[in-house]
Amino acid sequence: MTLLQRIGLLLLFLAGTASAQGTLSLQLPECTEPGETQILTAHVDLEPGATLKSYDVRILFDPALVTFLPAQLTQGPWLQSGGPTFFVGDVIGTEMIVNAAILGPGLSVSGSGNLFSVPVTFLQPGAIDFAVSLSTMYDVTLQVLDVLVVPSAVEAPCTSFNLNISYGSGIVELSWDAQDLADAYRIYRKQFLGEAWSLVDSTAATSWQEAVTPESTRLYRVSAQYLP
Description:
This protein is an all-beta fold. 2% of the residues lie in helices and 53% in strands. It folds into 2 domains: 9-154, Sandwich (Immunoglobulin-like); 164-225, Sandwich (Immunoglobulin-like). Strands 1, 2, 3, 5, 6, 9, 11, 15, 16 and 18 form a 10-stranded mixed β-sheet that branches. A 5-stranded antiparallel β-sheet has the order 7-8-4-10-12, with no helix packed on it. A 3-stranded antiparallel β-sheet has the order 13-14-17, with no helix packed on it. The radius of gyration is 19 Å and the shape is elongated.
């Protein structure tokens, strides 16, 4: 049984506002090892009655800390559910620029969904800094949507809270120190170093366990979750 102890913070920014017609958030794991690749996802929540037909989103980043992989940029299924789409993205300087639109008059989507996902390779440990430098979205009538970007930047230090892993009788058990003001803890797992982390569970407790197959490999990450 091979186990790797990992600890980090997941920054998931979702919020609402009385005046905005929706929110745009960046979802990504914040703590990584140098050279590790993770997935950054742009997610939108629209208010009832709001529609989305097209968007122009630009993410500013520090190339000394991270590298985007635009060749592996993937459009989310949300916009495609509204009809045939135009989708393009690339890195220009220190910006990741993504544009997409549903083709054809009267076609749009509503509700919530992922705009796109892109792999990001982290070059250094510790804090990262992403900012949405531009976010322009249009509804089915080609009017600009009032979409709140939450937050305008992502930056936080990596912290460790003594993650312990034990194994016996086919059971892996994780335990960790309680964190002040944490509402819950999320457990991530993967099998190989090159894979992206998968969220497997969330708990308010400071321990968690699962049954595993002998002679298998598991890598674990635990993150503290702070609700708005």
